[in-house]
Amino acid sequence: MKTAIVFSTKHGTTQKVATMIRDLAPADTELFNLNEVKDVDLAEFDCIILGGSIHAGTIQKSINKFCAKHMQELTTKPLGLFLSCLDEEKAAAQFNTAYPEVLRQHARSSKLTGGEALYERMNFIERLLMKKISGKKESFSRIDRSKVEELASEMFAEV
Q1: What is the rounded distance in angstroms from the CA atom of residue 65 to the CA atom of residue 39?
Q2: Model confidence over 47-94: pLDDT tens digits?
Q3: Considering 30, 65, 66, 68, which has the largest number of Cβ atoms within 10 A of its Cβ?
Q4: 31 lies in which domain range?
Q5: CATH number of the structural domain spanning residue 15
Q6: pLDDT tens digit string along 121-144?
């Protein structure tokens, strides 16, 4: 099953999760970072996994645009959705606003994969806000590998 993992990332966490998924996927799986490619021809893929992250309460605009542009194809193929998000209390609500309901209903797998605060990749204001919110002064990771493995298992069980 030829699979496309399409994602957008701000500080690299979503790319890290996408790579973790690819490492658990069949050999014919490709990564597409929407920060580096303008669009992806989904016609050549049998399965699509889409991922983004939450910053200031919203997902990247590139993910919103991608979903709007490819809604028809995304609802006719096996679909996986994941969201990188640090705020566990708000994560489910943010997931519901990040992806359109029609995609959430169609998805074979939907996972909240945790997140990271990578201070070395943040600007001054982002670091200040993160320190205030988290109380931590250094980078930290809360990526949930078990959720990544669950997504891969649910998406590739038939392969």
Answers
A1: 10
A2: 999 999 987 778 889 999 999 999 999 999 999 999 998 777 778 888
A3: 66
A4: 3-115+143-156
A5: 3.40.50.360
A6: 778 877 877 777 778 888 777 889
